[in-house]
Specification:
eight-stranded mixed beta sheet; alpha/beta; 24% helix
């Protein structure tokens, strides 16, 4: 099946908000209201779901979360669905979602990252629907740095739209803002310099492929299942190969190394023309850094590996569209990722 792009959102369209994983604690609800108002300021109507409870590790029982997500994704009046953030156990939704129904329903944008990779990546692989691996709702009020775009820009773009993102050159080195104390915060403390890093060697790079990927700690649990058949997706949708991106949320270098080895052995990277690796603040070890962990596991692929890309848990965020055609350029003078919604 060809990649299916949801229709672009226009003022007056509805954006659904639900928590397929973790909900929002009461002390953080003001930040939620700030984020909702920012989406409304773009002219959209926000529909707030019932699965939002933040008192535990999930927002509601799995069946309720699955039902609400299905309802929003198949509602023709809802143009996009975005969670407040990720969490830990979105994996329990997968057998409860009606994948056959999602294949034939009018496609709806699903946005998110971290634990939401558990849902958005299978949604693209199993139904052909493009999804946005990008800043969640609670991140939306932050000012988008020059060179990057917001998920709101992407879901408003028409099929065929092409956009290029470049690294801003700075990132946040430590910590997170306390939304309970500063619910209106809009500026990331981008206090450290940083550029993309080629791990496999040197030289200028220009490579293309269809984009797919997500969070290592969540996707590694789906390898070997029908929910993560990247090779099958490549055969039907990416005759020219893939640009695969991965990012470590917080696991140490040994765990990431093992997980990436397992994903490689399961065929996750078989069709990769190149691999993009998100910048991470996850710990290394005295004998193995995060960069070395990636190279140890993915070096046998013999494809370019570009690390420290803004597609992970270290702000700022560079949204990537699962299913889009990508063109990656990395030279001594410039680094950029161009995505085309075709």
């Amino acid at each position: 099946m060809p990649v299916r792009y949801p229709r672009p959102l226009r003022p007056g369209d509805r954006v659904g908000v639900t928590s397929p994983s973790s909900g929002v604690d009461e002390k953080l609800r003001e930040r939620l209201r700030v984020a909702v108002r920012d989406v409304e300021a773009r002219g959209f109507e926000v529909v707030l779901g019932q699965c939002m409870d933040g008192s535990g590790h999930v927002s509601a029982p799995a069946a309720a979360r699955a039902d609400e997500l299905m309802s929003l994704l198949t509602d023709p009046d809802v143009g996009a669905v975005v969670p407040p953030w990720g969490g830990e156990l979105a994996i329990d939704l997968l057998p409860l979602l009606d994948w056959d129904r999602l294949r034939v329903a009018e496609p709806t944008w699903l946005v998110g990252f971290s634990d939401l990779s558990t849902v958005i990546t299978p949604l693209t692989l199993l139904t052909g629907t493009a999804t946005v691996h990008g800043n969640n709702l609670m991140d939306t009020p932050y000012r988008t740095p020059d060179g990057l775009v917001s998920w709101l820009d992407i879901v408003s773009a028409p099929r065929g739209h092409r956009f290029t993102q470049i690294p801003p050159g700075r990132h946040r080195s430590t910590g997170w803002d306390d939304y309970a104390v500063q619910p209106e915060v809009r500026e990331h403390a981008l206090d450290a310099p940083g550029a993309w890093t080629r791990l496999d060697g040197s030289g200028d790079l220009e490579v293309e492929g269809r984009l797919i990927g997500g969070c290592i700690e969540t996707l590694c649990n789906l390898t070997g299942t029908g929910y993560l058949d990247v090779s099958g997706f490549a055969r039907t949708e990416a005759a020219g190969g893939l640009l695969v991106y991965v990012e470590a949320a917080g696991d140490d270098a040994f765990t990431i190394c093992r997980n990436l080895h397992g994903m490689r052995l399961a065929g996750f990277f078989d069709a990769a023309n190149a691999v993009l690796v998100g910048r991470t603040s996850a710990p290394g070890a005295p004998s193995l850094s995060q960069h070395q962990a990636v190279l140890d596991a993915l070096g046998p692929l013999n494809v370019p590996i570009i690390a420290d890309v803004e597609c992970g848990h270290v702000p700022p965020y560079m949204p990537i569209v699962n299913g889009a055609h990508g063109r990656l350029v990395h030279t001594a003078m410039r680094s950029e990722l161009t995505q085309t919604l075709v």
